[in-house]
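Sequence design from tokenized structure. All designs in this work follow the same two-part layout: the structure record, then the generated sequence. An example of the structure record is given first.
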């Protein structure tokens, strides 16, 4: 396949070019390809191509190395988040029945076999997605559904062979994995970290001359809060996985003054769907942008439907993930929430993401999460959990802000101030933990 051939050619012709680095571990293209090929040859001695390989490595660099080697061997990788519980891990093993389990204690076999050349139609990844139920589901990906989008991603995000990409967190988050493979397809370099401190991020960004950053909005909010000077060498800033709020968007243009800033919307089943870039991120902040090239979007009974060459094989040729939205006259898509997350308050449908986006326009609010909680009279009520940016903020002020900006039925009946909001391993707000916190620890939260 062209993807592996290109990386092999770089390893041969420019072996000292930086490929990937994390902390004190650094691999040139020559070193990375040799290590990955050795893993591939040894894994090829076990079973056959298309065997499932469960990768449970806590170190994100090792996770990526074994994934790459397994992919070269024609295996299908399922990458587990390092924070996965034993219950979920055992459940997944029982469900998937992997031929190989690669954990921190895994030892490669001594035997080696010839490495097959994967085809772009081959399934190479079982992407984990929790969906709306909380139970992990697996979305099978073939190479074509990713690699055929790489040239378009390069154009939209401004990626080239001199790009040095900063990624935070594990590769079980498929946006991280896609970004890394995309950069390698261009001959660029990857800088990894699994540390959760913005000071560590800025340190490695400066140390390795990073010029491209990909993170979810929650991590950009943390970075904006930490930085007191702009990072002028950054050429491209990319974000996805959740909606970028207005205030953080404005801050990104200040701390990355020379960068092309791009927000995208996608899903594990759909891959890239829309993107917003430049001034449109501010002018059309409530929108997730216009369709990616080659993507068709239409609204059917309120749901967003997508037809695209990047959709996962089991969902082709067209699919919906249950997102509710609409398109304006200029072709910009707006999301109001997901079908399974809609709050039903006495028959009125309320979309949490819309309420959250409005709350985040308040300059005194750092972050917000909106959920539905049971109510005997109305079925559900709206609960807003808020992290203050300004400690002087009061609940009365929040209610006044809601009266001015939300419909009567959308306004939260319960407002709670919390110190922070729990994030999952992908850096997204963990609504299930928030609901558990509300049900079990209400007495600990200020109302």
């Amino acid at each position: 396949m062209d993807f592996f051939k290109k990386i092999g050619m770089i390893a041969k012709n420019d072996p000292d070019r930086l490929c990937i680095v994390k902390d004190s571990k650094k691999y040139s293209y020559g070193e990375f390809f040799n290590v990955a090929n050795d893993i591939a040859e040894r894994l090829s001695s076990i079973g056959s191509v298309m065997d499932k390989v469960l990768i449970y490595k806590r170190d994100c660099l090792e996770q990526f190395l074994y994934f790459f080697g397994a992919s070269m061997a024609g295996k299908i990788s399922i990458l587990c988040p390092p924070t996965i519980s034993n219950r979920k891990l055992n459940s997944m093993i029982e469900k998937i029945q992997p031929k190989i389990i690669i954990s921190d204690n895994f030892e490669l076999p001594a035997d080696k076999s010839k490495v097959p050349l994967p085809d772009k139609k081959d399934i190479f990844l079982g992407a984990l997605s929790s969906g709306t139920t909380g139970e992990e589901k697996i979305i099978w990906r073939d190479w074509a559904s990713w690699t055929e989008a790489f040239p378009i991603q390069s154009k939209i995000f401004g990626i080239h062979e001199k790009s040095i990409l900063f990624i935070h967190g594990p590769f079980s988050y498929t946006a991280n994995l896609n970004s890394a493979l995309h950069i390698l397809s261009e001959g660029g370099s990857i800088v990894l970290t699994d540390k959760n401190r913005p000071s560590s991020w800025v340190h490695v960004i400066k140390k390795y001359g990073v010029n491209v950053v990909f993170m979810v909005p929650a991590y950009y909010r943390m970075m904006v809060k930490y930085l007191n000077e702009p990072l002028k060498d950054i050429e491209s800033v990319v974000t996805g996985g959740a909606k970028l709020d207005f205030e953080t968007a404005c801050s990104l243009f200040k701390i990355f003054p020379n960068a092309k800033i791009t927000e995208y919307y996608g899903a594990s089943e759909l891959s890239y769907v829309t993107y917003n870039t430049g001034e449109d991120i501010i002018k059309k902040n409530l929108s997730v942008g216009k369709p990616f090239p080659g993507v068709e979007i239409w609204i059917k009974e309120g749901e967003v439907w997508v037809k695209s060459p990047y959709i996962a094989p089991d969902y082709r040729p067209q699919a919906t993930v249950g997102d509710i939205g609409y398109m304006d006259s200029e072709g910009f898509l707006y999301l109001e929430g997901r079908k399974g997350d809609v709050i039903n308050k006495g028959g009125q449908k309320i979309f949490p993401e819309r309420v959250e986006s409005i709350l985040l326009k308040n300059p005194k609010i750092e972050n917000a999460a909106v959920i539905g909680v049971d109510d005997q009279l109305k079925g559900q009520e709206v609960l807003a959990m808020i992290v203050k940016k300004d400690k002087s903020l009061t609940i009365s002020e929040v209610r006044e802000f809601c009266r001015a900006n939300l419909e009567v039925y959308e306004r939260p009946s319960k407002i709670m101030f919390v110190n922070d909001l729990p994030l999952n391993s992908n850096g997204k707000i963990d609504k299930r933990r928030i609901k558990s916190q509300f049900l079990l620890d209400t007495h600990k939260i200020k109302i």
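The first strand starts at residue 18 and ends at 22. We note this feature because it recurs in several other targets discussed in the main text.
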